[in-house]
Amino acid sequence: MEFGLVELSRLQFALTAMFHFLFVPLTLGLSIIIAIMETVYVMTGRPIWRQMTKFWGTLFGINFVLGVATGLTMEFQFGMNWAYYSHYVGDIFGAPLAIEGLMAFFLEATFVGLWFFGWDKLSKVQHMVVAWLVAIGTNLSALWILVANGWMQFPVGSAFNPMTMRMELTSFYEVLFNEVAQSKFVHTVSAGYVTAAIFVLGVSSWYLLKGRHIEMARRSIAVASSFGLASALSVAVLGDESGYAVSHSQKMKLAVIEGMWETEPAPAPFTAFGIIDSEARETRYAVHIPWVMGLIGTRSLTQEMPGINDLVAEAEDRVRSGIIAYDALMTIRKDRANTAQEVIDTFEAHGGDLGFAYLLYQYVDDPRQATEAQIVQAANDTVPLVGPLFWAFRGMVALGVLFIAITAYFFVVTNFRGGRYPRWALWTAVWIIPAPWIAAELGWFVAEYGRQPWTVDGVLPTFLSVSHLSVTSVWITLVGFVVFYSALFVVEVALLLKYIRKGPYLDVEETEAWMQERRARLRGNARPAPNATPAE
Amino acid sequence: MVLFELIDYDLLRVIWWLLLGILLIGFALTDGFDMGVGALLPFVAKTDIERRVAINSIAPTWEGNQVWFILGGGAIFAAFPPLYAVSFSGFYLAMFVVLAALILRPVAFKYRSKREDPRWRSMWDWALFIGGFVPALIFGVAVGNVLQGVPFRLTESLMPIYEGSFFGLLNPFALLAGLVSVAMLVMHGAAWLALRAEGVVATRARAYGSVAALAVVVLYPLAGVWMAFGIDAYTFVGEVPVNGASNPLVTEVARGGSWLAAYAERPWIAIAPIMGIVGAVLVWKGIRGNREGLTFLASKMSITGVIGSVGLTMFPFILPSSIQPDASLTLWDSSSSHMTLFVMLVSTIIFLPIVLIYTAWVYKVLWGPVSEETIRRDSETAY
Lengths: 536, 383
Description:
The complex is a heterodimer. Chain A is built from 19 helices and six strands. Chain A is mainly alpha-helical.
């Protein structure tokens, strides 16, 4: 692979986005787990829940700042490295990003400071509300980012305006309630919840293995296993919802994930295993599970799902239609005020395929001059690399199944086997800690790499979206980010490990005072608790 | 859908130009003192406990303050996409340096006091210094370049092509603007420390603050005179379609004359530079008279005046092009569509007041002097 401007810009975006996404899932889930723990503390008054809340809160804080720090890069990188993209779709894409800042990130960032510094300045209930506000802010943040990302996958509610040479908003409602965005949101936040649950489960298991902080570890496992099981199940169910949404918005992505070259008769089977041969355009040694794909993709037994080869033929038609649109656009652009109505009508009819004509820019300066061979080539370009997507998807699904199994096991042992965890299970929980991150990154890869060659599906090709920068500049920032981020990552992991080894700060006095009061209350000679019902 | 036509396109554009100003000023007024405290850190605080006093005076709220910056970026993207595309790709390496400095900051706050090792702490203290000083300088340098016009072109498909270099940004006028920015934010940081910190940190902050206020009083008018007589302004040639489609190439722009013409045309805008200078003078007096509350307000007034004066002087220009003046971005021809501006305005009207209310509440809850005793008492939770 030759490293030109486009490849370097893509590499930089992928690295910074994937690095940012190392911190986001844990923040999403841990904010909720902490709010749950603090709620239990407020309801029961038991000091151990407060100590647990503070302990997991410390780890949350160490992780949270890196999410914030790397998020800064994301907010500005579109303008820095993807200037044409920013101009071309900023009218639609910018709005959710701005609203994210206004509605979600302000909430999260303002209250996270109060949460850490407000223990002595707020009442118990107030402090718990602050914990929930942080969790809500964090999750709303994900909603708006995925509304923006969902639009890149399935660009609804917008149209090209020849006067301004860009896409413009036609319906905010459609952008907001884009089905792809909605299913992506729930799938992504659930994955974040699983990440945090597995993290809490693993760290607590390590304490049990070492015989330390047993009371806290057991309670943490109880919270994490039930929260984790619910989330792992919802990832799977909502992942299926994602599959259904993709099936009519991004047929190509689905076919590629499936390694499905030819249109299969309905209902299509799911290929559990196979060797992809992109040269010969076939998937060898495929192990099929009948009906499953058709059911996920179409929710019916009779609807067909198109294969890659048919989709390429469809793309070829759209390239030709795009050339007509391009020709009309050039005529409009010459004299915008006095364009003949028929030219405008032609553009209206074919404008939706304009992006397909842009694919030809790779081979020819004016898409209207493209040869037959170049048109065929452009149509072939709409197929992302099949092998990596096919395997990344299967890796993600396999890990998802593993998470369901492990959280279910801990849930059962906690609730029905008296919490007698065998050592092998505890060790498994420790070793599995990195797995949710791998699954999350694979999922990210499937979604974004599967959208290639487009930044906005069918609208704007990736190679056209980049800024007009020198290769040297991008090398400088790319190397800079890699070095800088690696150093921060090492520091972060070292601090997390330090604080895990250190364990929670147990306030013995506080606990004993509470125990005494409780014993006194059980003996019946204490003053009534404030929330006791008045005597009948 | 005709709902968005309730507000005329030209009015929406003016509102968004104002909101952009409000966001930038909001950023300077809140995160500005965080950056000022960062830049002052090695000078106002020598020992570890002194440094913790300075850091903890901003520790609980810097994160919320920084959102003004992120929101500013998002709002530029949403309301003026060509501005977002041209400026950040044009100032590419400068932006990278700003990002690197700003990335250091959150990490430094959180990680600094997590280990006892003095070398570790000293390293993060310098990171906080960089995270305060470098962005303050570069933001000023950027404004200095915007006033002069930036070497970019737009193709027929509105692809921005920048033809300057990183070092081209560092011209004398821009560096002067950078110094004004640093002086202003250091003044703001010092005013904050005088208000919140106790003991020797506050005393030293007063000394540095009065120097910084004097620097603003001298350097800002100097930059103004230079701008008036040494820099070419940009003006529209002929009719300007204020309700037209957002395509910068449609209008014709000439380079020449002085930005001072704006003050002849709209004399009332002189209030901005006057606020800038008077505010700084009041800071200088307030610091010497130990009137911390007033000093901080005066500092806010000065910053509002200085930033406001740049916007009002250039109106309606936002980012002029020095090599293809017709491509200059103005609020009339580089905004988002009518509908997007409307949707964004509605969400701002709903959410910005809510943000302001809870931010004020959080500041109120966390209010109180930060001293060496309070740090020792809360050593576990404090940064």
